[in-house]
Structures are given as C-alpha cells and as structure tokens.
Amino acid sequence: MPGGFPGGSDRSGGGLPPPSPLLEAYHGTWQSLSPMPSPMLWPRGDDELEGLEPLDPPETRHLVPEDRRHRKKKHGHGSSSRHRSTKRVKIYDAEEDARDIYSALTARGEPATGALIDILPYLSEDQMQELRAAYKHLYKMHGRGINVAKHIKLKLPSNSNFAKISHATALGRWESEAHWANYWYQGSSSRRELLIEALMGRPNSEIRAIKAAFRDKRYGDSLTRCMEAELRRDKFRTAVLLALQAGRQDEGEVWSVEERNRDVDALAAAVRRREGGESDILAIVCTRSDAHLREVLRVYERKWQGNFAREVLRKSNNLVGEITAHILNGVINRPARDAMLLHHALLDIMETHNNGSSGATPRSSSLFSSSAAAPPLSATTAPPVSSAERQHRHELLISRLVRLHWDRSHMRRVRVAYREKYGALLEEDVEDATRGDFRAFCLGLVEG
Length: 448
Description:
single chain, mainly alpha, Annexin V, domain 1, 2 strands, annexin, Annexin, calcium ion binding, Annexin_repeat
C-alpha cells in the first residue's frame, strides 16, 4: 500500500481502514486560514524549486522588544544569556520556589497569584521537574507528597483561564501534552485541534515521552488505550493510533529516489480520486520524516505544478485535511506555522472580546490590521460566541503558548516569524487579546 515502508513491512498494525465518505466534516484551524498560509509557499528564486525555504528564519535577525517588561524574576529567571553562561554550577533553588508557591496557594482568602506568575513561566523543563520533586518532598498529605500541578488545580477557580495555564505549565513539557491529548473530548465542544497539535507530526522520541507521562487510571495510564476507547472508529482514530506507535521514519533514515517518487505518485493519485484516497494520504504523511516529506513536496510541486497541502484541503474539508495541513506546514517552516497558530488563537479571542465584552479599544495591533492574513470579523458581523466556544478558544492559546515556551530558541524564531508575517510584536498582540493575571502569565511564557 502507499503508506508501507521499504521492504514491504507495514508498521501501521494492519493498515488504515478503507476510504469512507462518512468521515465527518470538520471546520478547524487550517480550514479557517484561507488562503493557505505562507509556510506552504515556496521560496522565490530561479532555482526551479530545487531548494526549499529554510526551516528556520535567519539567525541574524532577533526580535528584542524595546519595551520589555521588568517584573520580579527570581533565581535567574529571565536573566541575560551572558549572566547564565558564567555560572556553570547548579544555581536553581527549587525548594525556595516550592515554598513560595505553597505559601501563595495556602494564603488566607484567595490564593496569591503573584508567585505563580513570577516563577512558573520562566522555568525550563528540568527546573520544573526539580520544582515538582521539591514540592512533593516538602509538603505531604496523608504521608504522600503533594503534586504541585494538582494543588494549583485544587486551589484556583477551575473555570479560570489563569488556573488552566498555571496547571498546564506546572505539569511539565510532556505531561502537559498528555493532558491535552486526554482533555479534548472532556469539554462540550470536542474540538480536535488540541489532540492533533499534541500528537501529530512529532518525532518518535517525543511520542514516547508523552506516552510515558500520561496518567489516567481509567485506562491503566495508557494513552493508546485511552484513544482506542474515546475515539470512534474512523480514519482520524487510525491516524492518531498510528502516531502513538512511534514508528515514524527517523530523520537520519534516507530513502531512495525511487521510494520518494512512489510517494509523490501515490499522493497525486490519492488527491485526484473522486472518492476515497484519504487513507493513502494519511499513511504517507503520518509515517514519513520531515526531511522525506520536504523532498516529496518539492518534487510534487515541480512535477504536478500544484501545492499538495492546498489540494488536500480542497479535497478533504474534514479531519484528514486538518491533520495533513498541520503536519506539512510544520515540515516546511515550523516557526512560521506556529506563529500562525498563535495569531489564529489570539484573533479568535479578540473576536470573542469584541462580540461579548466591553472594554477599551487596543492600540495598534495585527489583530485589527487589514494586512493580516486572516482579518478578524468585526463586532457587528461576528456570530454570537457560546461559553463553550469561548472556553475552547482560550484553551487553544494556552496549549500553544505552553507548548512553545519549553523550547526557548524555537520561541525566539516564532517571534521573528510572527513579526515578519504580521508586522507586530507577538507580546503586544498577546497583551491586547488577554487580561489580568492571565495576561501576565501569557507574557511570561512569550518573553521567558
């Protein structure tokens, strides 16, 4: 089959189910971004598409906002790279941060949010795990250490965006992804972007880390068992289970030109079929490496004079198109893709504010610029936004910011891509779209 691996082996556990016209229509993130965003555009030049746009923007351009906020950052949080590089010894004091957070959460009256804002957004993954271990060591209940993420969830209002972003960050890098993969179906909107962005297109090592961090006793702490139980039997379920097998082609594994050309021809045939073909597309896109897919897309465009990702979205206005667009946009330019995902979430939140809330009009922002790739609906034309949809829009922003902040070098590239695409600073758009303690926490994740 087109999704098979060289040598005739099939790592997908019996193959994908036969194409079916019953796959539900789904208007998700990428269907709402029209025309197809710039990461799928090929670079300008006269090399007949022999070279792709670099995966990362030029390192020589850095986004350094002039009005960077000065807020309390302890234990080196947010300190300059020069300062950090001169201290090779372990200087992070996890116990002091644990005490500050515990004091904040157990304060009389409402919990004090300042400590959470000052500490959590600035910790690396290793520091977060140190903090979690210190918290369990220092504070116990019935003889068992207290989980700081669970303590935050218990003490803060469950429906507040500040509680959600604090809790997700305190989970750490991989458990937070497992959280979103397990969270999407529990809300009333059942939006699949949370699951797609948590799992699809990731290296095998990251999938294994997410699976190891998953905790849900109902499914024996098995994310695979959870997805088997919660997803209905269709091609989307099969694609998710395929990703969870962690059998994607490794980046260092180079396939032959013949194998690459077979994938190009298989994708061309699948996207041109009047009915079906989606299973073949998923079998290739979900199992090939970024490097291989990049070559496939380059050859496809040269041979067929078309943009495969756009063609898939035209063919499949459903979850297949959503998965394919997410993976392929990341293949071509991951910083630009992630910049667009942030802009999409901020735009939706700003639309929610305009539609259902009063407030001051923000200063100049890409969220109100007609030059943005996906201009917002005005307050007079936007349809009413339900509370469930409003909650989902904030959850998308939370999941995307938390995910990106763990990799600071990538976040810097995302900020560069954001400014180049939308002509605005990411942190200024975040400030315009959010409010209160939630705003301060989001800015901490962006600025690090």
